[in-house]
Specification:
The structure is a single chain. With 157 residues, the chain is of the alpha+beta class. The chain contains 3 helices and 8 strands; from the N terminus they run E-E-H-E-E-E-E-E-E-H-H. Helices cover 24% and strands 45% of the residues. It has helices spanning 21-29, 125-134, 137-154; strands spanning 2-7, 10-17, 44-50, 57-63, 69-80, 84-91, 98-110, 113-121. It has a single domain (2-154), classed as Alpha-D-Glucose-1,6-Bisphosphate, Chain A, domain 4 (2-Layer Sandwich).
């Protein structure tokens, strides 16, 4: 199973990952390794802080392949290991969060595999169209999940 679709003001991506749920969940909460796979192809990550708890923050810079830096912040709103993560994700370049959206990630056990569902909820359908059309958000999400799968494969089940 590998699907991506837009519904209302949401981008939903699902993938059956060939790894146990705890490993997939841990990949999202491990400050030492998340930077090795997070983001679309060609992007690298510099983590400044990662505090995975409700109200905790992950501050990081996504370095684009064209040399552009994107200051990002994630503020965790729900932590339910190993089933679910929820957070607000936004631009952190001005010292205050802007252009934010909600993200819900669920990890559903499927035997030795995990059904990963990533749901991004944008402020409006207009904002959603912009991130899909101008920022290629659906393809970027697919590439991020591909990188996650590769990371898990290279680091054993």
């Amino acid at each position: 199973m590998n699907t991506s679709y837009v519904q209302g003001r949401e981008i939903v991506q699902t993938r059956l990952i060939n790894a146990k749920r705890e490993r997939v969940y841990n990949a999202f909460t491990d400050p030492e390794n998340i930077g090795t796979w997070w983001g679309p192809d060609g992007f690298t990550i510099t983590t400044h802080e990662m505090d995975v708890r409700v109200g905790g923050k992950w501050r990081f810079i996504m370095h684009g392949p064209d040399g552009t830096d994107y200051n990002d912040i994630i503020i965790y709103t729900l932590i339910d290991p190993p089933k679910e993560l929820r957070f607000t994700h936004g631009d952190d370049s001005g010292g205050e969060m802007s252009n934010s959206f909600e993200t819900i990630i669920t990890f559903e056990e499927q035997g030795e595999k995990t059904l990963l569902t990533m749901r991004a909820i944008l402020a409006s359908e207009e904002v959603l169209r912009k991130v899909v059309e101008e920022h290629n958000a659906i393809e970027g999400g697919k590439q991020t999940i591909n990188r996650l799968e590769q990371y898990l494969l290279e680091n054993g089940n």
